[in-house]
Amino acid sequence: MSEHLIRRVTILGTGLIGGSFALALRKGLTDISISGWDRPEVVREKEVRNAFDETFSGSLGPALAKADLIYVALPIGVTLDLFSDIARLAPPSALVTDACSTKLRIMEEAGQLFGGNIGGALAPMLTPLIASRFGWAGGLYFACGLVLLGMLAWFFIDASHVVEEQPAETAR
Fold it and tell me: Is residue 58 situated within a structural domain?
């Protein structure tokens, strides 16, 4: 298997979507570490422990500290509540993406907190559509593929290029 930049994945939300994403990663990539973060009663479940190398609850800091990819698979309200903490605690080089289905609020909040470091805009919108035609396994594999495609796009970003904010034009 070829070398890749994503070595440590942290999945926030270890339920059906987060756990399925972890299992899909595990099936396709054997040389990565997958951590999960959720409520204490969830991370204690046997199925959750089997899908992840390491699980966390409580503070996000330890779960995010070494992540290369952070996949947010939490309810929309919880995601919005945690975004500022994720932005503050995530490593600057970490790719942050989400599985939320309400994209406008997520994209507005993520754009303010992460700038250009947001991904996963298509996966949450297309996954249910694909699942309706090919089943949830096909939909989730498609979503995982989009996330990995987004990760590969980072190879083409010139981090040394500084973009300066332009003042907004005033209405006449």
Answer: yes
Whole-structure pTM value: 0.61
Whether residue 3 is contained in a domain is answered as: no
Nearest to 98 by CA among 161, 27, 59, 108: 108
Q: What are phi and psi of 35, to 5 degrees?
A: -110, 150
Tallying the residues shown for the chain, one arrives at 172
Task: Give the number of domains in the chain.
Answer: 1
Could you tell me if 120 and 98 are in contact, meaning their C-beta atoms sit under 8 angstroms apart? yes
Asked whether the CA dihedral 128, 133, 137, 140 is positive or negative, the reply is: negative
Residue 170 lies in a domain: no
**CATH number of 126's domain:** 3.40.50.720
Q: At what angle do helices 103-114 and 76-89 cross, to 10 degrees?
A: 10
Structure tokens at 103: 């994209």
The single-letter code of the amino acid at 100 is: C
Q: How does pLDDT run across 85-144, given as a tens digit for each residue? A: 999 999 988 888 888 756 666 666 666 666 544 445 555 556 666 677 777 777 777 777
Element (H, E) at 11: strand 8-12
